[in-house]
DNA sequence: TGAGATAGTATGATTCCCATATAATACGGC
DNA sequence: GCCGTATTATATGGGAATCATACTATCTCA
């Protein structure tokens, strides 16, 4: 009886530990992002947008503004800077269904410069992963993906609610 | 022989999957942070600093500037805004060894407002954690903590190197 | 005691953010 | 097909943020 309660208590602590660790990781990755951005003369929001463009593929400024949580006019400035720095191109597809539409595309040939920034963190993650079995890595990757989904939902709730 | 190679290949893919998931999570949490900040009228950097003050305990402006990667003068502006908003207090310890020193302390009585913002994400994480055993949760928390340490090291390397 | 380092903040030029306005295009009802 | 409205991307201007520099007060150490 007491052991059952102890078990429940232990479990709550475990869940709490996971959430705290996640929050600490969140802060640390934010700081790491800022250092990344500083290395290529990009503001926080600029860096976020470049990352989104790189990973979510070519997309329109309005869609990017929505997902990044930025004012459309602010995003124009962000894109101006990214384009001036040669990180992206704005394309106007001639045979697009909507002739107002602009497509923002990352210049892949410059991605090597970005990956170089990641190399330190990358090497450390490789080493860290060595300590886990295949099954454990799969478990971790799945947890991370599900957490991302949860974060996405929470973000939407906050931005719309 | 071939199966050994396949196993190694599979493993590389697993590691890659973990890193990609982590990167996606990084972006998503950045966006979530921006929404949090927007809800309490705080800029990205302001929110980061408030979070650091809350979690790393009372600390000096210079230490905060270092860890947050901000210019000292910029941090003065950040602290001004946080203080004006009533989120922190600047204290001048009378019997401190260094009389120049200022201590920045979070006003804990306002933390409830912050936790309310987290409630959505918090509830989702609770639910997500239900799918894991105690041992799995421990594994995950440990992985997250070690990743935070790795991020910390990578941040230091970038900011000093 | 004095030279130099350090903590925190003020100052001013530059840059950024964002509410609003504008131009071009799309869409829905009639 | 035509007109009112919505939407996309960007320009404009006023207010705010950023950061190099300077400044004051204090500490350290010789």
TrEMBL record, chains A, B:
Keywords (A to Z) from UniProt: DNA-binding
Protein name as it appears in the record: DNA-binding transcriptional regulator, MarR family
Molecular functions (GO terms): DNA binding; DNA-binding transcription factor activity
Superkingdom, natural source: Bacteria
Domain HTH marR-type: 11-149
Organism from which the protein derives: Streptosporangium subroseum
Keyword Acetylation part of the UniProt annotation: no
Pfam families, per the entry: MarR (PF01047)
PROSITE patterns: HTH_MARR_2 (PS50995)
InterPro entries linked to this entry: HTH_MarR-typ, MarR/SlyA-like, WH-like_DNA-bd_sf, WH_DNA-bd_sf
GO biological process, one term: response to stress
